[in-house]
Amino acid sequence: MPIHAIEDILFSQGFGTRRVCAGLVQQGLVDIEGRTLDDPAEAFEATGLSFTVQGKPWAYQAQAYLMLHKPAGHECSQKPGAWPSIYTLLPGPIRQRGGGAAAGVQAVGRLDQDTTGLLLLSDDGKFIHRMSSPRHHVPKVYELVTKHPVTPAQVSRLLAGVVLDDDPKPVRAAACEHTGEHHLRLTLTEGKYHQVKRMLAAVGNRVEQLHRSSIGGLVLPADLAPGQWRWLSAADLQSISA
Ligand code: URA
Question: Is the whole-model pTM more than 0.85?
Answer without folding.
Answer: yes
